[in-house]
Design goal:
The protein is of the alpha+beta class and 304 residues long. It has a domain at 11-161. It is 49% helix and 12% strand. Strand 7 (119-124) and strand 8 (133-141) form a beta hairpin.
Length: 304
């Protein structure tokens, strides 16, 4: 399951794949007995766009938002650093934006995780194939009574109703990075790559300084129209940052760069490729050892 979903500890994921046109029944509303129970004791990974809309909703700078509402973490099965929503230090470990009677105080700007629930979006991608396979699953937690309601949806209907399509579009390049990193396992990214990932993923103010107050524009040849957009529009800058991050980490995308930048990018990709090959070799060696051990145990049992 991708990293936009709540880590479900006591819930149930139905063991079937759902397509965009498959149907399910669900309704959540003030007055339902379980209202707000899904808004505590959960982990919510914040995407770059989640942070963007929440800090704007609250009228905070990136630094202010990160300090007050987040804590550091990493994406499951990768070394990639991100931030997660910091829960209140109460008995329920409640969401900081939860109001007892009214529910979510930032509902129109809530994170992607909250928008998708009770749907989980799953991405699968083989290391040697470029195609990304996407499907969905239905999450049924014991406390949730919304599944007993009669309101019926298709997956596409739900996504449209919850406004996740635009969120997913903005973060598409970021998600591709995460999926590729997961396919590589715990491959060691160098510190510079991890720092870049964290900066772009969590703090657009820092990325803005990186672009306009360093030698970035000497290395990357941007079209005048694009340069005007990322100077004047924070959202365009965010989209640009995610495209650039994908290019910087994996060489995917179309950027015109100087010879010096090409050399650095080539070296970074070479190191990543070497680490990936080494990891695959280690996996094969471990599998061979495990097989030899099993055969030896089988032989010993036969001899005895």
């Amino acid at each position: 399951m991708d990293e936009f979903k709540v880590d479900i500890e006591q819930g149930v994921i139905e063991p079937r794949e759902l397509s965009a046109t498959d149907r399910f029944k669900f309704k959540c509303y003030p007055g339902i007995e379980c209202f707000n129970k899904c808004c505590s004791a959960m982990r919510i990974n914040l995407t770059p766009y989640d942070i963007f809309i929440l800090k704007n909703r609250l009228g905070l700078s990136y630094d202010e938002f990160l300090i007050k509402y987040t804590q550091p973490a990493s994406i499951d099965r990768t070394p990639l650093p991100i931030v997660v929503l910091k829960l209140l230090d109460d008995e329920e470990k409640s969401c900081p934006f939860l109001l007892e009677k009214e529910g979510c105080s930032v509902y129109t700007d809530r994170p992607s995780t909250c928008r998708y629930y009770p749907i989980g979006r799953v991405h699968m991608k083989k290391v040697d194939k470029p195609e990304l396979r996407e499907f969905f699953v239905l999450v049924k937690e014991d406390h949730c009574l919304g599944h007993k309601e009669d309101k019926e949806w298709t997956i596409d209907d739900w996504r449209q109703d919850q406004g996740v399509d635009f969120h997913d579009g903005v973060t598409r390049d970021w998600l591709e990075i995460v999926i590729k990193a997961k396919s590589l396992g715990m491959t060691e990214f160098n510190k510079g790559s991890l720092d870049l990932f964290f900066m772009v993923s969590s703090n657009l103010d820092m990325f803005r300084k990186f672009v306009f107050e360093s030698r970035f524009l000497d290395s990357y040849q941007l079209e005048p129209d694009l340069l005007d957009k990322i100077r004047s529009s924070e959202l365009d800058l965010l989209k640009f940052s995610l495209r650039w991050l994908r290019f910087a980490l994996f060489g995917e995308g179309n950027f015109k760069i100087s010879d010096e930048a090409k050399v650095k990018a080539s070296e970074r990709l070479k190191k990543l490729s070497e680490a990936r090959k080494q990891q695959m070799q280690e996996r094969e060696q471990k599998a061979e050892k495990d097989m030899a051990h099993m055969q030896e145990m089988k032989k010993n049992r036969t001899d005895s």
